[in-house]
């Protein structure tokens, strides 16, 4: 697209008159705050409409080439959780620099007569530069919250910024300033604390570490990078802890609690704020002018730019991934349109050319982005590979890892230490066992090398060490022996066993839970601890977790219990505290204190104050070696039934969710609205659910699809269900007793899910029996048909999902898994 084919924008702010007068001058001459504004205005005055539209769009590197970025004048790119140069998590660090050069060259190319504005590259460096194998990876935020050490946050920000700059990148989507109030939320580990004051104190510290100190010569430049305060606002307060959900309550109280970190972030001159996927009292943040403009800008004084989250604009009612001027008008300055960037570009351009787009608002957004680019020194920085700060050799440098190791030490929280079992004294034979003992994947958690942090082997981490490796070195240095055992067996009887266990990696959405039970009384980790105790072996339990969970039986069965959170790559920091030196002296004492209340049961209702009866260990609790611990037996009643013991095959009974299931509806605006009452409507009005009579009052559910777009009805369980407990999956069928009370849908699908990336979808039409309108019928689909499409029948998390786009009505009375009376039924 050559410049002479572009449409010149004739709209210029009156305030830019002075800028036009100096537009012909060298743009590099402007310095200082007023100079930045003047320079930004001068650049804006030279830009065409197309160049302006490109500036407000951010694309994912997996979906755009440097050449396309040049053609469409794209303002920013990001690497999503599963994106890396060449498409692989094992990309060489130099490949990041090379791609950064390619995007720089493309965006600054003025051969077509354009302005040539350097694009920003943003990355989710949320616990270090965590997409790279050689990077230093810190404990996740929940662990950092336990350190109660804002000064350490500055050091962590500084190291993270250096390693981002080392690969030629400019901008991190951190810190997360969520005040997580419901630990069932799958992003709880991204929150520093349930306490707004602690989040506020960390906010300024980590941002100063990343960006530098406002007023200093190297602020935002040199080894510093742009930070992002996210996700505005109340992402940590959603109903039932549902990701992308709805925070309900008094607006002033919501702002006081969930806005606490943003005040200090703005005081630290944070350059960007990311809008939340979630809603407040039913209003999507990506479409909320009240919050993004009135509260954030007018009341709080934010003067940087607002970036959206991953296609978050599409969840605003009446918007799609490729068309959403409402987000721009609400206050989003840059669309995060990873794979939809071209569609957003085209729709904005069309709206502008037809006079439907507010060009003053477009100019405002572009000016904000330009101002930040100038303040950060981006426009004058030169090719990434030419910068003094670009040096992939510093990734995982010893002094960087030392900061991470300190963070691990200070994050450990001691809940129990009966009879002074810890620290491990010299000369001991120590058995180290459990799933997390020698697992970089489990100790680093989500947002590590890929989005969910799964599928990562130890040899994919170039730097760092496992917890066992650190323990082995410390124990042997003190004259002892460390034995690694996958199942707890050992040829010799150890003096003590350290059992390392906990959650497997997850990230947003996939980490959501409906309760906080880690495992029930028949759990394999509890069995391992009890087996060792039965042999007379003292047990230290080391719990790896992204949130407080109900582990009372595990604490009872252990002599010592330590919460290690998700410590990152420096597993040696655990041994620094747990193992004494060769003289038997404590090397480092426990400093960690709970930044979240710990639950007495597994129900999962929010507990955010010490006097709440649901609190077992209050906020701020944590023992050290000076305190004598002789623990009393904790209650072992989880308050939640084991889902597989509950499950008898029924999914829906008399119109209500059966057994372990929760009923949800959703559409593109919010996929996860719990049906807590008889009547509910999805946020985008795609589907409505209400009670209706069959044999008794409101013993069925009427589902009404509006036809405004894809919407769904689903039933999910708290944890995976094993269909083999009902019989051989090949002999089972999914049966639904229902009726079409209006026009049947031609595009209706039915699906079952089995975790991250595991699902099976079928069209319902081939299985439906033609009936007169409003007649009841039984839909029966062999489970084998779902297995053929990829379902794992031993790990079902969503037992029923009906989705369609057409307008229609459907009534459901019951649903469940049955023994198929027609085993030869065709798929």
Write a short abstract of this structure.
With 827 residues, this protein is an alpha/beta fold.
Structural class: alpha/beta
Please tell me the total number of domains: 3
Write down the CATH class of the largest domain.
Alpha Beta
Strand content: 15-25%
Radius of gyration: 28 Å
Provide key terms for this protein:
827 residues, alpha/beta, TIM Barrel, Rossmann fold, Jelly Rolls, 3 domains, 8-stranded antiparallel beta sheet, 6-stranded mixed beta sheet
What does this structure look like?
This protein is of the alpha/beta class and 827 residues long. The protein has three domains: 3-394, Glycoside hydrolase, family 3, N-terminal domain (TIM Barrel), CATH 3.20.20; 412-617, Rossmann fold; 643-819, Galactose-binding lectin (Jelly Rolls). Helix content is 26%, strand content 20%. Strands 20, 21, 24, 25, 26, 28, 31 and 33 form an eight-stranded antiparallel beta sheet that branches. Strands 12-17-16-15-13-14 form a six-stranded mixed beta sheet, sandwiched between helices. Helix 15 crosses helix 20 and helix 17 crosses helix 20. It is globular and about 80 Å long.
Task: Reconstruct the topology from this structure.
Layout: H1 17-21, H2 32-46, H3 49-55, E1 57-60, H4 66-71, E2 76-79, H5 93-107, E3 120-123, H6 141-147, H7 150-166, E4 171-172, H8 196-211, E5 228-232, E6 246-247, H9 251-258, H10 260-267, E7 272-275, E8 279-280, E9 283-284, H11 289-299, E10 305-307, H12 325-330, E11 335-336, H13 341-353, H14 359-375, H15 398-411, E12 413-417, E13 429-433, H16 440-444, H17 467-477, E14 481-485, E15 496-502, H18 524-534, E16 539-544, H19 552-557, E17 560-565, H20 572-578, E18 598-599, E19 615-617, H21 643-646, E20 650-653, E21 656-657, E22 661-667, E23 670-674, E24 680-681, E25 687-692, E26 700-705, E27 711-721, E28 732-740, E29 749-753, E30 759-763, E31 776-782, H22 783-788, E32 796-804, E33 808-819
Parallel strand pairs: 1-2, 1-11, 2-3, 3-4, 5-7, 6-8, 7-10, 13-14, 13-15, 15-16, 16-17
Antiparallel strand pairs: 8-9, 12-17, 18-19, 20-21, 20-33, 22-23, 22-27, 24-25, 25-26, 26-33, 27-32, 28-31, 28-33, 29-30, 29-32
Helix pairs in contact: 2-14, 3-13, 6-15, 7-8, 7-15, 8-10, 15-20, 17-20
């Amino acid at each position: 697209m050559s410049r002479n084919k572009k449409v010149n924008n004739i709209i210029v702010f009156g305030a830019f008159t002075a800028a036009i007068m100096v537009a012909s001058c060298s743009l590099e001459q402007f310095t200082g705050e007023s100079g930045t504004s003047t320079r930004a205005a001068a650049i804006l005055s030279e830009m065409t409409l197309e160049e302006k539209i490109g500036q407000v769009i951010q694309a994912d590197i997996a979906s755009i080439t440097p050449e396309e970025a040049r053609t469409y004048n794209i303002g920013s790119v990001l690497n999503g959780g599963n994106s890396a140069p060449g498409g692989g998590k094992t990309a060489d660090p130099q490949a990041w620099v090379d791609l950064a050069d390619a995007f720089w060259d493309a965006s600054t190319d003025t051969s077509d007569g354009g302005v040539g504005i350097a694009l920003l590259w943003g990355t989710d460096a949320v616990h270090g530069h965590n997409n790279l194998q050689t990077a230093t990876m810190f404990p996740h935020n929940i662990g950092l919250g336990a350190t109660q050490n804002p000064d350490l946050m500055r050091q962590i920000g500084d190291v993270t910024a250096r390693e981002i700059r080392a690969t030629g990148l400019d901008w991190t989507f951190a810190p997360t300033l969520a005040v997580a109030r419901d630990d069932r939320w799958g992003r709880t580990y991204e929150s520093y604390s349930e306490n707004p004051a602690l989040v506020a104190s960390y906010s300024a510290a980590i941002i100063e570490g990343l960006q530098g100190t406002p007023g200093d010569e190297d602020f935002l430049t040199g080894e510093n990078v742009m930070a992002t305060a996210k996700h505005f606002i109340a992402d940590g307060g959603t109903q039932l802890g549902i990701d992308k959900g709805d925070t309900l309550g008094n607006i002033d109280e919501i702002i006081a609690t969930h806005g606490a970190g943003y005040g200090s972030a703005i005081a630290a001159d944070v350059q960007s704020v990311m809008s939340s996927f979630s809603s407040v009292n039913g209003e999507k943040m990506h479409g909320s002018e009240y919050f993004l403009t009135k509260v954030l800008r007018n009341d709080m004084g934010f003067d940087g730019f607002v970036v959206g989250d991953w296609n978050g604009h599409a969840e605003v009612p009446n918007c799609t991934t490729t068309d959403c001027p409402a987000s721009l008008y609400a206050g989003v300055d840059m669309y995060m349109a990873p794979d939809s960037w071209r569609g957003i570009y085209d729709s904005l351009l069309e709206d502008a050319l037809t006079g439907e787009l507010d060009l003053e608002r477009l100019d405002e957004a572009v000016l904000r982005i330009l101002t930040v680019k100038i303040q950060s020194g981006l426009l004058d920085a030169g090719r990434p590979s030419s910068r003094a700060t670009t040096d992939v050799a510093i990734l995982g440098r010893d002094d960087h890892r030392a900061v991470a190791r300190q963070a691990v030490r200070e994050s450990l929280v001691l809940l129990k230490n009966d009879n002074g079992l810890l620290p491990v004294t010299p000369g001991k034979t120590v058995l180290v066992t459990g799933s997390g003992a020698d697992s970089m994947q489990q100790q680093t958690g989500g947002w590590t090398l890929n989005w969910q942090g799964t599928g990562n082997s130890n040899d994919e981490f170039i730097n760092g060490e496992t917890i066992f490796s650190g323990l082995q070195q410390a124990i042997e240095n003190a004259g002892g022996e460390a034995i690694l055992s996958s199942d707890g067996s050992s040829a010799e009887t150890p003096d003590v066993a350290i059992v390392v266990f906990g959650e497997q990696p997850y990230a947003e959405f996939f980490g959501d839970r409906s309760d906080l039970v880690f495992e029930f009384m028949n759990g394999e980790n509890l069995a391992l601890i009890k087996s060792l105790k039965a042999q007379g072996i003292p047990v230290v339990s080391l719990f790896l977790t992204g949130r407080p969970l109900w582990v009372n039986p595990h604490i009872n069965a252990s002599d010592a219990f330590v919460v290690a959170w998700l410590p990152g790559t420096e597993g040696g920091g655990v041994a620094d505290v747990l193992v004494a030196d060769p003289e038997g002296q404590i090397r480092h004492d426990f400093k960690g204190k709970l930044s979240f209340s710990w639950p007495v049961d597994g129900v999962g209702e929010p507990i955010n104050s010490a006097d709440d009866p649901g609190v077992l260990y209050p906020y701020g609790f944590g023992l050290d070696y000076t305190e004598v611990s002789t623990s009393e037996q904790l209650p072992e009643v989880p308050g939640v039934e084991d889902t597989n013991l509950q499950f008898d095959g029924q999914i829906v009974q008399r119109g209500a969710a059966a057994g372990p299931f929760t009923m949800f509806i959703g559409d593109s605006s919010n996929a996860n609205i719990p049906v807590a009452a008889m009547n509910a409507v999805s946020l985008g009005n795609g589907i409505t659910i209400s009670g209706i009579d069959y044999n008794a009052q409101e013993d069925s559910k009427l589902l009404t699809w509006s036809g405004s777009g894809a919407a769904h009805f689903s039933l999910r369980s708290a944890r995976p269900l094993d269909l083999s407990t009902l019989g051989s999956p090949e002999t089972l069928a999914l049966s639904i007793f229902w009726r079409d009370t209006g026009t049947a849908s031609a595009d209706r699908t039915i699906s079952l899910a089995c975790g991250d990336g595991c699902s099976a979808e079928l069209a319902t039409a081939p299985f439906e029996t033609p009936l007169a309108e409003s007649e009841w019928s039984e839909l029966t689909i062999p489970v084998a048909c779902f297995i053929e499409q990829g379902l794992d029948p031993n790990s079902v998390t969503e037992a029923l999902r009906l989705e369609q786009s057409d307008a229609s009505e459907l009534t459901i009375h019951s649903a469940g898994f049955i023994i198929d009376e027609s085993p030869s039924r065709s798929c």
